[in-house]
Design brief:
Layout (H helix, E strand, L loop, with lengths): L2 H21 L3 H12 L4 E3 L4 E4 L10 E7 L9 E8 L6 E6 L9 E5 L5 E9 L4 E8 L13 H6 L4 E5 L9 E7 L19 E11 L2 E8 L8 E6 L5 E12 L8 E13 L2
Parallel strand pairs: 1-8
Antiparallel strand pairs: 2-3, 3-6, 4-5, 4-7, 5-12, 7-8, 9-10, 10-13, 11-12, 11-14, 14-15
Length: 277
């Protein structure tokens, strides 16, 4: 093999090596995120408790579909208490902390998030015995947190806080029932340019969510700017009898998308839905 061919092969090897490192890059997790969120905790990396599904290459970085599926149903004896979602390379890696209960039926969750650059997405589950299990997937996406708000912001603000529930018509009393919660909110990240004024808009996003059935919680969430505009969540609950499914959530505004020392609380919204057998 001549010298030119050797050099070419050398650069090909470097390229493949760099790609492998990028897709398996755990530096941010190991040096920052693990100690920030789980200091002193032991975390097993496995698909034994939950699995994570994301597209390898996102069609739209501002609405990347993410699905977490649990390997067992919730019961008083064994259940998933919390699931954290993190995007390593996002400006704010914390996507959300989702709390589940035996009344949730299944600790499954589907939502749409923003991904700002090629990154690992992580889901960490805590079971009721205190054990932590993590699974991760790599996604190719770019610009999700700074994607334009669009020209219909005024219309979006008119619908602010409106909620829709969608429940499987064939649900059965006493069995896990999939539910979709759709919230009308622009979820402004604080990194987006207003297409009309050309100014960066101050962040304004849903940060607290609670869903209950007959006053018993089935999902509680702390969420951040990585949740897409018009947040959309799929989850489960177990209706033990006809009753009221209720969503309560708050939004917040911050001067900086990263620093949270200058923030102001926004509105509190409540929406109920009658569940009839």
């Amino acid at each position: 093999m001549n010298t030119l061919a050797l050099h070419a092969w050398f650069f090909v090897l470097i390229a493949f090596s760099s790609l492998a490192r990028a897709e398996g890059d755990d530096d941010t997790w190991n040096t920052v995120l693990k100690s920030q969120f789980f200091a002193g905790k032991n975390i097993e990396e496995s698909d034994a408790v939950i699995t994570l599904e994301v597209p390898y290459r996102a069609e739209d970085p501002a609405i990347v579909p993410v699905s977490v599926s649990s390997k067992f149903q919730q019961s008083n004896d064994r259940y998933i208490k919390k699931i954290w979602l993190l995007v390593d390379k996002n400006p704010v890696p914390f996507v959300g902390e989702f709390e589940f209960f035996p009344e949730s039926g299944k600790a499954d969750l589907a939502l749409r998030i923003r991904v700002n650059t090629y990154s690992n997405i992580r889901a960490i589950a805590e079971t009721n015995d205190g054990k932590l299990t993590m699974t991760k997937k790599y996604v190719k996406a770019s610009g999700g947190c700074s994607a334009p708000i669009g020209s219909d912001l005024d219309e979006a603000l008119k619908r602010l806080g409106k909620v829709k529930f969608r429940i499987n018509d064939n649900f059965k009393i006493g069995e896990p029932t999939q539910t979709q919660l759709m919230i009308s909110h622009p979820n402004i990240t604080g990194m987006q340019m207003d297409q009309m004024t050309r100014f960066i808009r101050k962040s304004n996003f849903v940060d607290q969510l609670k869903v209950s059935f007959n006053n018993k919680p089935v999902l509680i969430a702390k969420i951040d700017i990585a949740i897409s505009a018009d947040p959309n969540f799929r989850f489960y609950f177990v209706p033990d009898k006809p009753g009221e499914l209720k969503a309560e959530f708050n939004d917040i505004s911050c001067e900086s998308p990263v620093k949270r020392d200058v923030c102001s609380k926004g509105n509190h919204y409540v929406q109920s839905y009658a569940v009839d057998h």
